[in-house]
């Protein structure tokens, strides 16, 4: 029996859009972006830290801030644009068609990542690719066989990815 994967709760990050809904107060409800500094501004409440919080935690923080102005505010936060904090993103570097940073999604695998970046370039050494991951404060590097997965369909090569992973795809030697 394999151990259960760690529970993943979405954390808000810079670049996300959040819909702040204040029940019975439509003039206080707004959809706002999370700024690069990780804060949001809504009617009556400025510069509320949002990055690194779950939507529920942000809703409770907004309720506390709004209590100064209205009685018993009830706030719901809905994330409408997903990026997530940097520590929760997956970085793909090297010989991917579109190297980029990808928001982590629950149960994501290396195949999902490869679909997102458009696959490998013709110069990629897919079977020499590796995932760099921090485990208990220590950086570890694991080999992945992307050519076997993508070109031969070897499903055993489809390994899970975790928030904060970096996938490195080197160039092949001729």
Features:
about 170 residues, 5-stranded mixed sheet, 3 helices, Outer membrane lipoprotein wza fold like, about 15% helix, 10 strands, 3-stranded antiparallel sheet, single chain, wza like fold, alpha+beta
Structure description:
This protein has 174 residues and is an alpha+beta fold. Helix content is 15%, strand content 30%. A hairpin with a 2-residue loop joins strand 8 (129-135) and strand 9. The mean pLDDT is 92.
Please give the structural blueprint.
Blueprint: E1 17-22, E2 30-33, E3 39-42, E4 45-49, H1 55-66, E5 75-81, E6 89-94, E7 101-103, H2 110-117, E8 129-135, E9 138-144, H3 146-151, E10 166-169
Instruction: Please tell me the overall pLDDT.
Output: 92
Secondary-structure-derived class: alpha+beta
Strand order of the largest sheet: 7-6-10-8-9
Q: Characterize the largest beta sheet: strand count, sense, and whether it forms a barrel.
A: 5 strands, mixed
Number of domains in the coordinates? 2
Query: Roughly how many Å apart are the termini?
Result: 43 Å
Oligomer: single chain
What's the total count of β strands?
10
Name the CATH superfamily classification of the largest domain: Outer membrane lipoprotein wza domain like
The portion of residues forming beta strands comes to 25-35%
CATH architectural name of the largest domain: Roll
Number of discrete helical segments: 3
Q: In CATH terms, what is the fold-level topology of the largest domain?
A: Outer membrane lipoprotein wza fold like
Overall 3D shape: elongated
Q: Could you name the ranges where pLDDT drops below 50 across 5 or more consecutive residues?
A: none
Strand and helix order: EEEEHEEEHEEHE
Radius of gyration equals 20 Å
> How much helicity do the residues have?
10-25%
CATH class of the largest domain: Alpha Beta
């Amino acid at each position: 029996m394999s151990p259960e994967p760690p529970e993943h709760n979405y954390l808000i990050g810079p670049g996300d859009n959040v819909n702040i809904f204040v029940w019975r107060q439509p003039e206080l409800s707004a959809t706002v972006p999370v700024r690069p500094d990780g804060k949001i501004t809504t009617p009556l409440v400025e510069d509320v830290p949002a990055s690194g919080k779950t939507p529920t935690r942000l809703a409770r923080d907004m309720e506390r801030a709004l209590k100064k102005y209205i009685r018993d505010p009830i706030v719901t936060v809905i994330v409408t644009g997903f990026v997530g904090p940097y520590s929760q993103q997956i970085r793909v570097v090297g010989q991917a068609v579109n190297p980029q940073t990808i928001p982590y999604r629950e149960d994501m695998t290396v195949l999902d990542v490869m679909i997102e970046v458009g696959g490998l370039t013709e110069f990629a050494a897919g079977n020499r690719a590796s995932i760099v991951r921090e485990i208990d404060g220590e950086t570890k590097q694991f080999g992945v066989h992307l050519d076997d997965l993508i070109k031969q369909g070897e499903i055993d090569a489809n390994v899970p990815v975790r928030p904060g992973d970096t996938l490195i795809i080197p160039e092949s030697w001729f």
